[in-house]
Design goal:
With 289 residues, the chain is α/β, with parallel strands linked by helices. The protein has helices at 30-42, 63-75, 102-116, 135-147, 161-170, 186-189, 192-199, 214-218, 221-227, 234-245, 258-266, 274-284; strands at 3-5, 10-12, 17-18, 47-49, 82-87, 89-90, 97-98, 121-126, 151-157, 175-179, 202-206, 249-252. Strands 3-4-5-8-9-10-11-12 form an 8-stranded parallel β-sheet. A two-stranded antiparallel sheet has the order 1-2. A two-stranded antiparallel sheet has the order 6-7. The longest helix has 15 residues, at 102-116.
């Protein structure tokens, strides 16, 4: 069931799919990547997160966006699929850089529109603030893109609570994307989640099952103990804990294999009982009620 957030009325499902692993180093073939996406859609996922720089280097910007667009085309668009993408980063020769100049954000948005094959991007996010460019100018560029109808909703990634409030004073912000998992709980204590709750913004949690450090989640004794009697994997327990911990949290686990996509989607249909939530909260957020 989708949940509405904030003054822009953005509606989000409880769990999405992060597309990054399908386009960076170690990625599967394009055919397999598209099968992972269609498998996730078949299993009930309706939100896919991407970025123009999810690729190997500057010569293939938009690689992930194109894979997602093709997969949705193959799938047939039987239900609305929400695609969230980002602009503001660069990939010179495979390195990661930042470029938040308004002209660059406008050009990146135009390129993403072409890659996704759409006239309007549902959720367009500033990938990370550029310290060389006034923050208000970066937010202003996104506001103009929305006013022009090129994007429906504005999101921010890798920001502070103060930056969220400053941006919101300029234009409505629908979502924030930060890293969040049982082993990385900083957004609970640095004010970002509290600011999202106060402003009615959704919180997209990337790397919710550990990202490159999935082994730690897989071997966590608390997650194993909670999941075993429920028939849930540690990854599914981690996802459900985030979904049930706060109504604005939407985990977006990445996947590069069909089984991972199915496993994440299965967490849509499972829930944790109150005693399990109490145990997980005590283990991972002892300082929070």
């Amino acid at each position: 069931m989708n949940r509405p957030f904030g003054p822009t009325g953005v509606s989000l499902p409880p769990i999405g799919l992060g597309g990054m692993p399908l386009s960076v180093a170690g990625r599967p073939s394009d055919a397999v990547a598209e099968r992972v996406i269609t498998t996730a859609l078949d299993a009930g996922i309706r939100l896919i997160d991407t970025a123009d720089v999810y690729c190997l280097d500057h010569t293939e910007l938009g690689h992930n966006e194109r894979r997602i667009a093709e997969a949705i085309r193959q799938w047939g668009g039987r239900d609305p699929v929400r695609v969230a993408t980002k602009g503001g980063c660069t990939r010179p020769d495979g390195r990661w850089g930042v470029d938040g100049r308004p002209a660059r954000l406008e050009a990146a948005c135009a390129a993403s529109l072409r890659a996704l094959g759409t006239e309007q991007i549902w959720l367009y996010q500033l990938h990370t603030p550029d310290p060389k460019v006034a923050f208000a100018d970066q937010i202003g560029a996104l506001a103009r893109l929305r006013e022009a109808g090129k994007i429906a909703h504005i999101g921010l990634s890798n920001i502070t609570a103060d930056q969220l409030r400053a941006a919101h004073a300029i234009t409505p912000i629908a979502s924030v994307q930060q890293r969040l998992s049982p082993h990385h709980t900083r957004p609970f204590t640095d004010g970002v989640l509290d600011a999202c709750a106060a402003l009615g913004a959704a919180f997209l949690a990337y790397s919710p099952v550990g990202g490159r450090n999935k082994a730690r989640i897989a071997q966590d004794p608390i997650l194993l103990a909670v999941g075993r009697p429920l028939g849930m994997t540690p990854f599914q327990v981690a996802l459900r804990w985030l979904v049930q911990r706060a109504p604005q949290i939407v985990p977006i686990p990445g996947a590069s294999k069909l089984a991972s996509a199915r496993g994440s989607a299965a967490a849509l249909r499972q829930s944790l009982p109150p005693e399990a939530m109490t145990q997980l909260n005590a283990a991972f957020l002892p300082e929070r009620p």
